[in-house]
């Protein structure tokens, strides 16, 4: 797939060789193929974009103060560094202030409208991806929301779309962007995140469970299925608190957990009661404020409950907060849906850019190149797998649950590695992998050639067979 995109980009370069601006755009797309995967974090105001970014990175890096209307790019680098790109002016270096928990960047020089800010920060989380913090998709009117979403879908290879509860107005923003994007027969590059999962249950301790149940309902909704490849509930604030939990934080939470619940709970009904009330234990006001800032009331309630339940040291509590927040599930979804499919998603971005150029500036030969793009999108096996994943999710093909689950696994829905596709242990021998793949190939070929089955099922089975053939070819070439 990436080879096809590479070749098509060079065909386009030859086609537009007399147009320096178009050549510059195309060369930029060629360079993008070698860059880390770009993942944009988008959503309406107060959807928790910056908190989610920090949770994914495990450090307090976002937001850049004063850059509300800009796209902020977070990239890996050996040392902290930040640059602003104001409209019509030279780039401006920004001051980076390091702290014990991360850094702070302040856009305080007032150089006019800023389109982009690039923050370079040394962290493992950014070695495979570039994260993009985007302007809020609210408060700018319908045209402004569509404009921001258009740029998100153009500049990013994949999108985490944050929404408080999957409300109709948020879905309309995604729908408007999808209408103008290329290759959208299946929502291959969007994960919808219920990002205020701790608020969905009304602040109750079981609120995160309620949020997961809501995410599953959204996942089964055909309208959502036409817009996102997965739906995950995640509290960024709880996940970040878990990743950054210090010994002093744990000590303070353990002190609170030592108070009987009936005595502590009245002080956790509001932030003002916790901050200013007479707690049953001695606790400095600054420490109370710091706990509220890092955990919120829900996080404090959850953490103290967990300490009482046996998560009685920093490591245990940190791991359980991260698990309950949904952050682990979100990171696994990002890996499975995005990072594991990096080459396919980046090739898709390149094809989208070329198609947009051909549509905006048609030249002699552009119609033929556009037809080639259409053929690639329709025929590339990687895209056929992704389209089948969406169809299986909504049982459109009529497979029973067991067959649908096997098909989903074989085409990479549970991970694109051979062991994950074949459902065997990671330590399985090549012989074992070959036997399982060959067996699956023959069984699904029988379904693909069964004239009694509906055409949609036979075509779906053909995709599965092609995936099995690809695994056998990889094993024959010495892969695992």
UniProtKB/TrEMBL annotation:
<protein>
    <recommendedName>
        <fullName>Dynamin family protein</fullName>
    </recommendedName>
</protein>
<dbReference type="InterPro" id="IPR027417">
    <property type="entry name" value="P-loop_NTPase"/>
</dbReference>
<dbReference type="InterPro" id="IPR051943">
    <property type="entry name" value="TRAFAC_Dynamin-like_GTPase"/>
</dbReference>
């Amino acid at each position: 797939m990436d080879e096809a995109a590479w070749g098509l980009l060079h065909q386009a370069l030859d086609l537009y060789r007399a147009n320096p601006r178009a050549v510059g755009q195309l060369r930029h797309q060629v360079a993008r193929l070698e860059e880390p995967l770009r993942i944009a974090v988008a959503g309406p105001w107060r959807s928790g974009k910056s908190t989610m970014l920090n949770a994914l990175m495990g450090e307090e890096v976002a937001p850049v103060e004063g850059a509300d209307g800009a796209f902020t790019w977070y990239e890996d680098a050996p040392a902290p560094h930040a640059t602003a790109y104001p409209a019509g002016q030279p780039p401006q270096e920004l001051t980076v202030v390091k702290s014990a928990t991360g850094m702070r960047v302040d856009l305080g020089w007032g150089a006019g409208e800023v389109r982009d800010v690039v923050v370079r920060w040394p962290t493992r989380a950014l070695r495979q991806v570039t994260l993009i913090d985007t302007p809020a998709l609210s408060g700018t009117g319908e045209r402004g929301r569509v404009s921001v979403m258009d740029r998100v879908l153009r500049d990013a290879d994949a999108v985490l779309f944050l929404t408080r509860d999957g409300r109709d107005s948020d879905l309309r923003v995604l729908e408007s962007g999808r209408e103008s994007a290329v290759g959208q027969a299946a929502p291959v590059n969007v994960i919808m995140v219920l990002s205020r999962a701790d608020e969905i249950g009304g602040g109750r301790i079981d609120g995160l469970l309620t949020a997961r149940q809501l995410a599953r309902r959204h996942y089964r909704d055909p309208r959502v299925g036409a817009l996102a490849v997965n739906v995950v509930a995640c509290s960024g604030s709880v996940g970040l608190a878990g990743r950054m939990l210090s010994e002093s934080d744990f000590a303070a939470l353990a002190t609170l957990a030592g108070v009987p619940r009936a005595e502590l709970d009245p002080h956790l009904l509001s932030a003002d009661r916790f901050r200013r009330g007479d707690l049953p234990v001695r606790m400095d006001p600054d420490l109370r404020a710091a706990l509220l800032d890092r955990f919120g009331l829900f996080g404090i309630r959850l953490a103290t409950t967990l300490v009482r339940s046996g998560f009685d040291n920093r490591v245990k509590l940190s791991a359980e907060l991260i698990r309950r927040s949904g952050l682990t599930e979100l990171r696994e979804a990002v890996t499975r849906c995005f990072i594991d499919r990096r080459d396919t998603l980046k090739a898709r971005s390149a094809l989208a850019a070329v198609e947009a150029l051909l549509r905006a500036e048609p030249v002699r030969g552009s119609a033929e190149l556009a037809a080639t793009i259409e053929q690639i999108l329709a025929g590339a096996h990687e895209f056929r797998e992704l389209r089948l994943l969406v169809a299986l999710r909504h049982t459109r093909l009529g497979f029973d649950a067991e067959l649908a689950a096997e098909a989903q696994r074989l085409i990479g829905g549970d991970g694109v590695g051979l062991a994950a596709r074949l459902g065997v242990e990671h330590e399985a021998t090549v012989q074992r992998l070959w036997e399982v793949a060959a067996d699956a190939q023959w069984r699904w070929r029988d379904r693909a050639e069964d004239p009694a089955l509906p055409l949609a099922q036979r075509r779906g089975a053909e995709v599965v067979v092609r995936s099995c053939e690809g695994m056998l070819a990889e094993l024959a070439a010495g892969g695992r």
